[in-house]
Amino acid sequence: MDRIEQMQVLVAVAEEGGFSSAARRLSLSGPAVTRAVSSLEQSLGVQLFKRTTRRVRITEAGAQYVEDVKRILSELTEAEEAVSGTDAVPRGHLVVTAPAMFGRLHVIPGIATFLKRFPEMTVDALFLDRIVDMLEEGVDVGVRIGKLPDSSLRARKVAEVRTVLVGAPEYLKANGTPSSPKDLAKHSLITARTGNFSPTWRFSAENREISLRIKPRLSATSNDAVIEAAINGLGITRALSYQVAQAVSAGKLKVLLEEWEQAPIPVNLVHREDRSAPIKVRAFIDCLHDHLKATLG
Q1: For FRET with 121, which of 93, 155, 173, 196 sits at 20 to 30 Å CA-CA?
Q2: Cα 288 vs. chain centroid, distance in angstroms?
């Protein structure tokens, strides 16, 4: 195995967090992966991973070397793509992240289209309701919902989503429909403890701002759970428009206090800042961009 192949193995072990999973990803034997890493360590005179019977942990020197290796491999890929010209076909592996529910509803169909179009690609999807450190966790492309802080990421806006208040028709019939945010104090409220959870709901209309500290009757650790509770008539919840679009369209939920909604939230596709993104990243972003534009408008 030459040095470039050893570097590719090293990156796989670091990103997968283990030798066995890296071997499966690369379609190599476990011993071959172990030998490649050991050979690198012997050549460098540095321990790259600390190994125990239960886990593999990268060393500080190993983490720095992996980042340098990723840059080298990326530049090598760019050079090959430049020589190959515009007809180069995306191939290799991508790691993609998105919020859990958004990933299930909107990113998976985009990934399916991408993989059917480019059979030499593989994708690892991380759907998590937290902000993923793309550099640290080896992520190539991410979907971010919300304003982006200044960072080393490049972003491409694809859509906007609204923060909406919803309740089931049967609940509203039994308990009344709120006409202002202050009326919510009389209602059963449901909240999701995900992402940037806050016990304060904010509303705005006609240059007026209202902050309402809520006392939920039910809180849960997933958006799916609170939306299902609202559909079942337990109370009123707040969600992003894409999360309840199907239930609203089916008449299972009704949007409330639309005139008090805050400004829409941007949806961006982000990737790590590079001189130029590899062709596989560009191709995936183009594919997912077109899919999200068609489904989210």
Answers
A1: 155
A2: 13
